[in-house]
Each structure stands twice: as C-alpha cells, then as structure tokens.
Amino acid sequence: MPRRVLLAFFALLVCACAATLRAFGAICKSDLDQLIGQPAATAVAKWGAPSRTVTLPDSSIVYTWAGSKTSADSPTRDKACVMTVFLTPSGIITRWTASDGCNVY
After folding, report:
1. For the segment 46-60, what is each residue's pLDDT rounded down to a tens digit?
2. How is residue 27 annotated by DSSP?
3. 80 Cβ partners below 8 Å, 6+ apart?
4. Which of 105, 103, 85 is nearest to 41 (CA)?
5. Which residues contact 103 (CB under 8 A, 6 or more apart)?
6. Domains of the chain, with CATH numbers?
C-alpha cells in the first residue's frame, strides 16, 4: 500500500507542472490543453512575457516563448524549446504548439 501512495504522489507531482517554461522542466500536455479558452494573461503568468509577439493580418495574435535546456542524456548540449500560443483578436487562447525540446508529455 505505501508503494501505491508513493507512486500516486509521484504521478501527481510530475503532472503538477510546477516548473515554468523559464525553468524548462517537463510540461504536462493536459496543463497546456487547459489554457485553451483562457485569456493570454494566463500563459504570461505561467511563463513570463513572451519573447516574441506577432499580430497576423486577420488580427489574431501569436505569442512565442523560446529558450533552451540541457538534456539529461547530453548535459553538454542544449535542446531548443519553443512554446507558441495562438490567440483570438480579443486575446483568448485558441491553441498551442511546442517544439520537441520542450519535453511535453
């Protein structure tokens, strides 16, 4: 029984996704999915100001955060992480993308 509790706690801890993009820890897909329908301020609160903001011709907005992290399998080589959220003209998140280096699970 204690092993199950420990495993459940570990799973909860891992999926808590307390690490922000700035720390480049693993990111839970379910947490990213929960951003959809939320205001852009929700993503900014999680990851800080985006490194790039683009307004598209249809007035929709794209926020991008970019950085790198050292991978466990190659501590001397950084992996690029690019996280992008797409917003309506009124600033509501409609979808997200993440590069392989972001370690989304």
Report:
1. 889 999 999 999 999
2. B
3. 66, 67, 68, 99, 101
4. 85
5. 24, 25, 26, 27, 69, 79, 81
6. 2-102 (3.30.1450.10)
- CA 71 → CA 13, 33, 41, 68, 80, distances in Å? 20, 24, 29, 9, 10
Q: Two tokens at 77?
A: 């080589």
Structure pTM?
A: 0.69
Within 1-105, residue ranges assigned H as helices are 2-16, 29-33, 40-47
- Chain length of the chain: 105
**Which structure tokens are listed for 67?**
């950085």
Q: Which residue has the tokens 């050292």?
A: 70
Mean pLDDT computed over 94-105: 88
**Residue 78 near residue 62 (C-beta atoms within 8 A):** no
Q: What mean pLDDT is predicted for residues 89-102?
A: 93
